Amino acid sequence: MKFAINHIAVPELSVDDFFALARRLCCDKVEVRNDMPDVISTATPDDLRAAADVAGVEILSINALYPFNVWSGDLPERAVGMADYAKACGAKALVMCPLNDGTPVGTDSLVTALKEMAPILEERGLTGLVEPLGFPVSSLRRKAEAVKAIEAAGGEGVYKLVHDTFHHHLAGETELFPDWTGLVHISGVADPDVAVDQMLDDHRVLVDVQDRLANVPQIKMLLDRGYTGPFSFEPFAREVQELPNPQAALKESMDYIARAVSVA
């Protein structure tokens, strides 16, 4: 398995320290964010590229353009700015998340956004990683809908999916799209009392034996069906982000997943 680390796992670390942590964990792939922490606003793309080169890591993605499926207001301008930054810093892709506030967004709007975004990505040699969010309030919950929209937009050569194990479980989606998957986000939920439709980012911890999201079966099925890309840790819970020894905790989770998948 190829593991990667999303900066959300250790948001208090500087870019240099985050990259160094990834390398100590034998991970040469990382994801950089524009929210927590907001690297785009605090580091130039040249500095980010230089730090990645020194550490020997590859920047998989900038996470994330939001809400990509509502192509209005300042979104086009922000999309160009993020794509320019991603290219300049050496990132391979731009994660794209849908509106997530309970407002419905029609298929036509989704297809239009994909059509408008495609040339921005193509001109910069970037992949658009479409990430459906499984929350009940999300305007794009399932990967099946995303695939249909990408095909309707003629974006097969531009877009891939993010399979997020948390959102896959919340959406109740059973179909996998390994051929469409460009990145997998992994996190677990261990709280035994929270109902699935009440799960939030704050519940997302590192994957261990108490996981309720069926991470191991999801990962196993993706691997068995031909997915060869990275599995990126994306825990949002403060209890993870405030761990005194995140390296040890991440290593323990990696070891658990690798063992569990091998015997599943």
From TrEMBL:
SUPFAM superfamilies for this protein: Xylose isomerase-like
GO molecular function terms listed in the Swiss-Prot or TrEMBL record: isomerase activity
Residues annotated as domain Xylose isomerase-like TIM barrel: 21-258
Pfam families per the UniProt record, alphabetical: AP_endonuc_2 (PF01261)
TM stretches of this protein: none
Keywords, comma-separated and alphabetical: Isomerase
Protein name: 2-keto-myo-inositol isomerase
Organism field: Tropicimonas isoalkanivorans
Lineage: Bacteria, Pseudomonadati, Pseudomonadota, Alphaproteobacteria, Rhodobacterales
